[in-house]
Automatic annotation (TrEMBL), chain A:
<keyword id="KW-0739">Sodium transport</keyword>
<comment type="similarity">
    <text>Belongs to the NqrC family.</text>
</comment>
<keyword id="KW-0288">FMN</keyword>
<dbReference type="GO" id="GO:0010181">
    <property type="term" value="F:FMN binding"/>
</dbReference>
<dbReference type="InterPro" id="IPR010204">
    <property type="entry name" value="NqrC"/>
</dbReference>
<keyword id="KW-0285">Flavoprotein</keyword>
<keyword id="KW-0830">Ubiquinone</keyword>
From TrEMBL, chain B:
<keyword id="KW-0739">Sodium transport</keyword>
<comment type="function">
    <text>NQR complex catalyzes the reduction of ubiquinone-1 to ubiquinol by two successive reactions, coupled with the transport of Na(+) ions from the cytoplasm to the periplasm. NqrA to NqrE are probably involved in the second step, the conversion of ubisemiquinone to ubiquinol.</text>
</comment>
<keyword id="KW-0813">Transport</keyword>
<keyword id="KW-1278">Translocase</keyword>
<keyword id="KW-0472">Membrane</keyword>
<dbReference type="GO" id="GO:0012505">
    <property type="term" value="C:endomembrane system"/>
</dbReference>
<keyword id="KW-0915">Sodium</keyword>
From TrEMBL, chain C:
<keyword id="KW-0997">Cell inner membrane</keyword>
<dbReference type="InterPro" id="IPR050133">
    <property type="entry name" value="NqrDE/RnfAE_oxidrdctase"/>
</dbReference>
<feature type="transmembrane region" description="Helical">
    <location>
        <begin position="12"/>
        <end position="31"/>
    </location>
</feature>
<keyword id="KW-1133">Transmembrane helix</keyword>
<comment type="function">
    <text>NQR complex catalyzes the reduction of ubiquinone-1 to ubiquinol by two successive reactions, coupled with the transport of Na(+) ions from the cytoplasm to the periplasm. NqrA to NqrE are probably involved in the second step, the conversion of ubisemiquinone to ubiquinol.</text>
</comment>
<comment type="similarity">
    <text>Belongs to the NqrDE/RnfAE family.</text>
</comment>
<feature type="transmembrane region" description="Helical">
    <location>
        <begin position="109"/>
        <end position="132"/>
    </location>
</feature>
Amino acid sequence: MSETLKSIGFALGMCLVCGVLLTAAATGLQPMQEKNRLSDRQKNVLYTVDLASRDKAYTPEQIRDIYEKNIDKIRVSAAGEIAEPAEDKAGDGQVLTIYLYTKNGEIQNYIIPIESQGLWGKIYGYMALENDGSTVAGFTVYEHSETPGLGGEIEKQWFQENFEGKKIVDRTGRFVAVQIAKGDVDKRVPEEKESHYVDGISGATLTGRYLSKGLEKTLSRYEPVSLCFRKQRLSCRLQEPTDPGEK
Amino acid sequence: MKLTRTKAFKTFAGPAWYENPINMQMLGICSALAVTVQLKTAFVMTLAMTFVVSLSNLIISLLRNVIPGNIRIIVELAVIASLVILADEFLRAYYFEISKLLSVFVGLIITNCIILGRAEGFALSNPPHLAFVDGLGNGVGYGSVLMSVALIRELFGSGSIFGYTVVPERLYAAGYEDMGLMLLAPAAFIIIGLMAWLQKYLVNSRK
Amino acid sequence: MVELLSLFLNSVFAGNILLAYFLGMCSFVAVSKNIETAVGLGFAVIFVLTVTTPVNWLIFHGLLSPGALAWAGLPDVDLSFLKLIIFISVIAAMVQAIEIIIDRFSASLYAGLGIFLPLIAVNCAILGGSLFMVERNLTFIESVVFGFGAGVGWMLAIVAMAAARIKLRYADLPSGLEGFAITMIVTGLMAMAFMLFSGITM
């Protein structure tokens, strides 16, 4: 019996020591990890508008400085008015988050947070659009669970740079979003559609298909905002960030 | 007294070469292959692995006289899991980019048979300093295989070493292409098979 | 429904947990020497993965994930750093429990599977299944399908390997290539074949 007691005592002691150690480490390192996560997202926002280059390394402080100088996070209602956070209590998606890149008092780009289904899990990223409301300025992915070498290529520069200059509307001005082709655009896609297709990844047809669907869904939700920019309505000329604290 | 005759050296060199945990004993291959697309990730994985295996050996060796036999395995797993969590949290706090690339594979060090194997087979019956050195040797042996596979995969798959492009532009211009297969899973299996063959051949021919 | 089927097919073929993610290699190399044991271990892995992945899902989303403890009045607590240690304990406990149950109810099954169950507790495919489930944000139903699919994929790989190794016994290999080395090379060829399935779409 004493043997059993000794084992139970030892196990309890083990649990206590490990638990205390791990909790201390996790709590101690958490602020650091949060900072990294935030910095990583800010960096990805900057990538889409070419304020940071993918080939260079930055400290979190540098990223924060560039970000705070140029980017404002705002929430807009579907009509393009600045929304108070309180209005989205129901969470029905009527209030949208966008990031604005402002230069010399002029909005250059608006950046949309992308969330898409992938083959294995959610894909998160950002897409920047020019202030004409129809041209893609940049695209990044900061989190995904696709297979390395196949679907995982969506995190690579070559794939993301393909999006630059693509249109989310067709020639008649109708909204079509951006699609990922099944192979190379110039071989697979008819001439008149080339402006809203990007090259696909070989061996990752499914990832491409999911991402196409996800982009279309997100972009169509943001279509009212894009329309604003396309029509150059005054209410879209959002200048002031609503809440400087929320960065 | 020559260095190569000391017990500590033998403890280190055994696992690092003659009984290499991956090639000679076929252990711990899982995590070994998954992170070998780039040298950078392979190197960090090696460090994490060496950290866990040497410290778990040390701790278990220190506790070897007080651990009740009937809950031995659970205690070993608890020690290993705690060390892995520490390594994982540390990486996510200080090396965020790399920890994103390593994803779940740091966590999978827990079920790496090398560590439990050394804890059971060595740490329980040897004094702490030898157990620690044995852990280091295993970490290095493990790391050397990881790094060699990663070197081949990165060099032929992306034309770079540690992220720096080494294949000259002229060669690409002349029609050389990176080998896409190297970045995919099958290449890792085949390379590790060829390396195990080479090492076994070398070890056998010495005898 | 179609999504679930496609998730299943993907976890069996193109995203095979062993051939694409390298998990469960140790037992794969050690146990693929003959067909019967490979089949036995394969079934055991399917069983354990199908049970532990959803159980770990419940534990993770009910207790560990950030904000999971809101029901207990602790909405700010984030225990997700404990997931590794909890998952491995759950897996070890489940394996133990399954062993006891099988022992109670079916002597023949226990005789067949009993020897493999302890092996499974330290098979990284099982822990990998649970970690991928968290990583990929699966829903509960998806975690069941994924656990089952990953198990089936693992079994398919090990049984195919066992069949190939029987043929290899009669091969005249150069010194040093026999055993582990040739097994790895054949696995590589098999992984290539499995990659071809990535074209399957629903």
